[in-house]
Amino acid sequence: MNIQKGPASPGMYLAWGAMTVLALAILWGMGGVISAWIAPPEEPTTITAPAQ
Q1: Whole-angstrom distance, CA of residue 23 vs CA of residue 1
Q2: Are 37 and 44 a contacting pair, CB within 8 Å?
Q3: Dist CA 44 CA 8 (whole Å)
Q4: In b/e form, how buried is each residue of 25-42, taking b as 16+ CB within 10 angstroms?
Q5: Angle subtended at Cα 50 by Cα 46 and Cα 52, rounded to the nearest 5 degrees
Q6: What keywords is this UniProt entry annotated with (predicted)?
């Protein structure tokens, strides 16, 4: 087991940060789709006979 490892390279932190920002941007952009998916179904419209 190698315990003499150095710190992670700065590029690794940059890559993780970029992936996080991208994931948050995608989730924010899909907010309407996700909330419509989570929301309960709308009440069905009642069908009534036309007035005479």
Answers
A1: 34
A2: no
A3: 56
A4: eeeeeeeeeeeeeeeeee
A5: 150
A6: Membrane, Transmembrane, Transmembrane helix
Separation of alpha carbons 22 and 34, rounded Å: 17
Residue 2 Ramachandran class (φ > 0 left, ψ -120 to 50 alpha, else beta): beta
Q: Which 3-state string (H, E, C) describes the chain?
A: CCCCCCCCCHHHHHHHHHHHHHHHHHHHHCHHHHHHHHCCCCCCCCCCCCCC
26 within 8 A of 33, measured Cβ to Cβ: no
